[in-house]
Design brief:
The chain is mainly alpha-helical. It contains twelve helices and no strands. The chain has helices at 9-18, 20-29, 40-50, 55-69, 74-87, 92-107, 112-115, 120-128, 135-144, 157-167, 174-184, 188-199. The longest helix has 16 residues, at 92-107. The two termini are 34 Å apart.
């Protein structure tokens, strides 16, 4: 059985009371079941392999890794080694990032259990110090693994697109973003689900007011 990001009437009523435009979008889309990975170790690996590839490619690679290893753990990855991990379809660089992470968890230099007890800011900092994990990836791990309730990422292009569509702005600069983030806090993660859904075409007549330009792919360090 799949696990989904947990939210309910409390979050929805709060967001609708704070933001009429988002409330209308919520009513039109309805409840969103967004899968989460509740294991922090595997979530970090999953996000490393998924960077700069399509969701479909990520799913295919992840299935290969799980089918072959049985379970994605520090021990199974370290036993597999660089060439074996790369053979699943990822790059050697990502394989090195994964092995570095697994090695640090194994030798205790990265306390993965401590991350779960950290504040959002502390957890983002700790995760983004890992090789292959930038701030945006750390934010996604907090949302889709730890299920932190107040994550809204300025570094996510789809979030910004969804916000443009909902609020009818040609651009969402940092000042506008912060205004909406403060308005929607402490339920930003639920709001994020609806911005993503809007950006993905959940409401066909809701268009993007931004000028037609090519969006560059995000680069993680």
């Amino acid at each position: 059985m799949s696990a989904y990001f947990q939210y309910g009437d409390e979050e929805i009523l709060y967001l609708k009371s704070r933001d009429k435009k988002l409330g209308e979008v919520i009513d039109r889309i309805g409840h969103i079941n967004r899968p989460v990975d509740t294991d922090l170790f595997s979530a970090v690996v999953h996000h490393i392999i998924g960077q700069q590839i399509s969701t479909k490619a990520q799913q295919t690679l992840w299935k290969r890794m799980n089918d072959d290893l049985g379970s994605v753990t520090a021990d199974s990855l370290l036993a597999a080694g660089r060439d074996h991990i790369q053979s699943f379809g990822t790059t050697f660089r990502k394989a090195d990032y994964i092995l570095d992470f697994a090695g640090r968890v194994k030798n205790g230099s990265f306390d993965i259990e401590a991350v779960e007890q950290m504040s959002d800011e502390e957890a983002i900092q700790a995760l983004s110090e890992l090789k292959g994990i930038g701030v945006w990836t750390a934010e996604m791990i907090l949302l889709f693994c730890l299920q932190r309730p107040d994550i809204l990422s300025y570094g996510d292009l789809a979030i910004l697109r969804g916000m443009r569509m909902v609020y009818r702005h040609r651009e969402i600069d940092r000042m506008k973003f912060e205004k909406y983030r403060q308005r929607l806090s402490p339920c930003c993660s639920t709001a994020s689900l609806y911005f993503w859904a809007a950006a993905g075409g959940a409401i066909p007549d809701l268009t993007d007011p931004a000028p037609k330009i090519k969006e560059k792919k995000r680069k993680e360090k």
